[in-house]
Design a protein that fits this description.
The chain has a four-stranded mixed beta sheet. The protein is α+β, with helices and mostly antiparallel strands. The longest helix is centred in the last third of the chain and has 27 residues. 57% of the residues lie in helices and 9% in strands. It has three domains: 81 residues, no CATH class; 95 residues; 63 residues, Helix Hairpins.
Length: 252
């Protein structure tokens, strides 16, 4: 459902508005109806009335083999001929890229309406072609105004160590960098991050102190001690991430 509602519907919006021609629009609508039909058939045993009402409103293409009612529609079967593993992999990588850019924007408090430049290092082959082809998708879903490609070895920022910005590495090894100078108030963001670092640093110190107290370790129930250890691990992980973000905004 996430792939359908969160991604497919967003990806086909320009096509549904006719921006890619009538053939593309009709193909997108047919796929949309087919997928919704399958989803409603799967959900029908759990929510019969709602799914039936929705199914009756599906805009079936002319000449489609439509069952008389959802309750008598056959159970969906997998058509192995329609499985395209390479396309699924490319789309999955594009989804990860969009998700990572969104995460970086949120982590560094990039204003929602501000476009950013995306620099990618170590990207090649089919994935690079997909990113180039889906430039408009990146712009719509991640507010990317420009996308630059750099060879391996250029570094995450792909333009020198003096560039301030947000950096991440995807599962496939592609490095992602978003320059932030002129996009956010660097000094204010550093101040905000430093306050968070100080707060978490204090929490780490307090928790470590509690766990180093023999009286607490011997007197507290085991589940309470385990909970404090989990809290310490979580605090330390958050602290390391915040320090990394603070370091990425360092200005020489």
């Amino acid at each position: 459902w996430g792939d359908f509602a969160d991604w497919y519907l967003e990806l086909i919006k320009p096509r549904m508005l006719g921006k890619s021609g009538d053939d593309s629009l009709q193909a997108a609508r047919a796929t949309l109806v087919a997928v919704l039909d399958g989803i409603l058939r799967l959900l029908h045993p759990l929510t019969p009335f709602v799914t039936s009402a929705l199914w009756e409103r599906l805009p079936w293409p002319a000449g489609a083999d439509r069952p008389e009612a959802l309750i008598v529609a056959p159970w969906p079967e997998l058509d192995a001929d329609l499985v395209d593993e390479e396309s699924e992999q490319r789309l999955g990588e594009l989804q990860e890229l969009v998700t990572q850019v969104r995460s970086l924007r949120k982590e560094y408090s990039v204003p929602e309406g501000s476009g950013v430049t995306l620099r990618l290092s170590g990207i090649e082959g089919p994935l690079k072609a997909v990113v180039e082809e889906q430039g408009n998708t990146l712009q719509r879903l991640a507010k990317v105004e420009a996308c630059e490609f750099h060879a391996d070895g250029d570094g995450g920022n792909a333009s020198g160590s003096d560039t301030v910005g947000a950096h991440a590495v995807l599962k496939n090894g592609v490095e992602v960098f978003i320059p932030l100078e002129g996009v956010i108030d660097i000094a204010r963001e550093r101040e905000r991050l430093q306050e968070e670092v100080d707060r978490l640093d204090a929490q780490v110190g307090d928790t470590r102190g509690k766990l180093s107290n023999d009286g607490f370790l011997k007197g507290a129930p085991p589940d309470i001690v385990d909970r404090e250890r989990e809290k310490l691990s979580s605090f330390e992980e958050q602290l390391n991430k915040l320090r990394g973000r603070l370091s990425s905004l360092a200005v020489d």
